[in-house]
Amino acid sequence: MRVDETIKGRSAPVSFTFSYSTPAIDSVGNAAEGGLAPNTYRVVFLKKTVTGYAFVSPYYLSIPSASKSCRPNWQVQLGEDAYHKVLQRLLDLLCTDSTPEEKQPALFDLNWNEDSSSAPFLRAALNLPDVKSDPTLRISIVSDLLHWKDLSVLPLAEEDLFDRSAKSPFYPKSNLVLAISSLEPHTSIPLLARVLKSPEPEERVAAARFLEYTNSETALDILLSALDDPDREVQFAVMQSLGNLTGQHYWRLNTGTTESDPHWVSCIQHWREFGEQRNADRTKSR
User: Fold this and answer.
1) Could you say which DSSP state residue 66 is in?
2) How far apart are CA 178 and CA 207, in angstroms?
3) Which of the two ends of the chain, N or C, has the fewest CB atoms closer than 10 A to its terminal CB?
4) CB 46 within 8 A of CB 9
């Protein structure tokens, strides 16, 4: 291994060799990564041992990294602490001459719960032609920014959601639907309602699943309108979300339940009656 910078801790030698073993799957199902691919440039997480070096964790060895920084006039710098230096090295892949195959893992390694400080960098990267023209990179960045409540990318999200030609084999649109569900209900529900009418069953399933996350009364009527969707998986997701939103967990279905199962029929009937009662109650209150 050759080292060009030690980001945190005592400086490592410029070049050294170390050995390691790949453990079995751990108690919660994590699989070890297996090693480092040759002739790649990465940030590697090591710790000093009595005999040399070892991976901090065999389940998370390294992350992709750019060997060069962004062009001189690039304005977005994330910070000088170790965490932001690592994040900068990861994101520099987006603004340097790396391939799409190298850029994609950089985005997939971002964590929605921890890496919101990367938002200014992603906003700037979204204006780069080779990023904006790549559906995988664009949809991934837009999803990240929406999850961090950046509504400036909402028009791009709508464009990608409803443009049938905007597809990525590596980043399903369901991730974009999930990000939208994290927005305020007055913004998210109209979009999710449109997705629930998509010609693609996978997208309708995502909308039915994630409408639950809006925690909104309005979502109930949207879900009830899709109760008779021709796709079984959509119906299943609709009833799961209705049960979770209303707290009526008995009227949800087990994963293996089929349309011929009596409980499936009972659940469908229950939610139809639930919808009819909601309509009747609204009529009375007028």
Assistant:
1) -
2) 8
3) C
4) no
Sign of CA dihedral 205, 209, 210, 215: positive
Whether 65 and 42 have beta carbons less than 8 Å apart is answered as yes
What is the DSSP-derived secondary structure letter of residue 251? G
- Can you name the residues that pair with 55 across neighbouring β-strands? 46
Among 35, 40, 29, 32, smallest CA distance to 66 is for: 40
Which of 187, 130, 110 minimizes the C-alpha distance to 153? 187
pTM for this model (two decimals): 0.85
- The Cα–Cα gap between 12 and 18 comes to 12
- The amino acid occupying position 97 is D
Distance CA 171, CA 237 (A): 21
> What is the tens place of the pLDDT at every residue in 208-262?
999 999 999 999 999 999 999 999 999 999 999 999 999 999 999 887 777 778 8
